Amino acid sequence: MNIKVRQEEIIEEFGLLDGDLEMSINYLIELGDQLAPFPKNNKNDDFIVKGCQSKVWLFAQEEDQRVIFHADSNTVVTKGLVSLLVRVLSGHRAEDILNEDIYFPDKIGMGRFIGSQRSNGFSAMIKQMKLYALAINIKDKK
Amino acid sequence: MTLTLKDQLDLTAIRKQFPVLDQSVNGNPLIYFDNAATTQKPLAVISEISRYYTEDNANIHRGIHTLAERATAAYENTRKSIAQFINANESEEIIFTKGCTDSINLVAHSLGGYLLKPGDEVLISCMEHHSNIVPWQLICEKTKAVLKIIPINDKGELIFEEFLNLLSERTKIVSMVHISNTLGTINPVKEVIAAAHKWGAKVLIDGAQATPHNKIDVKSLNCDFYAFSGHKMYGPTGVGVLYGKRSLLEAIPPYQGGGEMIKEVSFTQTTYNEIPFKFEAGTPNIAGVTGLNKAIEFIQSIGLDQISHHENTLLLRATTQLSEIEGFQPMGTASEKASVISFNVEGVHPFDLGVLLDAKGIAIRTGHHCTQPLMDRFKVEGTARASFAIYNTFEEVDQFVSALSNLIKKLR
To answer: In this structure, what are the phi and psi dihedrals at residue B326, rounded to the nearest 5 degrees?
Structure first.
């Protein structure tokens, strides 16, 4: 399943919630709960993406020429948010991650769900994931 | 506006004055508990701003036409109202600013620049808002003065003996919050001022959280400066006040240059205007100032005794109910406390509480509340904070506690 298909899947799922804020947040929390455990050794400041009020830890590794992302957060809502990105971007080739446009946040009205401050944090997460992909891409080309 | 207030507040009548409260947020009736950040505005304030622009709009002071006269009168009447509201000696001791932060910056820059020499000391407390920390850091850096911090105890109260120990002939300025925006602690500012004056230090009180709740009497306090914001006391944003003793306002240099604050300008020499105009460079927020007058009338129509009594009752009810929640960790349990509750709940991040309460239509604030050094003191990243105003009800407190309890069960 490519990045675009995964984004469409998320758009469809959130569409079923009909814009209900509470249901959307509860769904986010459920998705966050399903994230794979984050490697304990990597839960330090080297892997932190600082948001306004919450912390996100983000880590990438390459397996069979695919980028695998691991993420965690100290808040359940943010953990749900980053789980969406892991679902969309993890398991793809670095080049695909770099080239694909991440459009699902706008389509599911994420700004309305999470507010402008958290939207900035979300953009920082996407940027960090693309930076990991860039680093892996450069390493592969050497 | 006339409100019927006898033995009990007519909250229905009061709430009708605040149209913003009459709405659903995320499918639930709005419960607004973020009053320490900003209060909502009564109709009288909203209408006055509209009336001013509709009927009187003109630039003030130097115009000779009728509209300029009317605008000037509305602006200057507010100055008189504020002088009476805080019991200043005269309205010339009232300076209009952009807000409390702007007022503090004015004092730090003008008084600090005037008084401070290398090695002099400025004292602030551990519970200050960043607005009463950073301006002093800036001026201390510039003058090579030293910023010293008065510690607080685990209840969030000033350790007065430590304050006395820090005072010395080197202390030139003490700047302290009257009521902490995070802890709700009401500081013993009258005693602080008296002690600082014994050493010849000048004292600024940050009253941003105090003016909406308690009667302020600057003459009785004997403070040298008192700063506050309009928007935290039912007035418009973008308007603040600085009270200063005449002798000091006359002695210290202007903060900003521009129109209005000058007497005569030439390329070789400029002479400054009299107070208060010396500190009001540029066209001020005239509409905001006239709106602030209506906010003061609103407060006075109810009475600060009634307001603080009602808010304290809400505080007691909320504190009692919240204390029954397992893992409830209040931050700020001072014996003298205003209507602010900061707390954490074991095992739950305050950010999650804020987001999920918002989904229920309940507005609280989460984070460090612009008091990061205070968060460090209590070794927490942030807290959830509920803060009450005159229009809040017991039912809202009950619904908030009930919603919070249910969320906590779900999140644990």
So the answer is: -65, 130
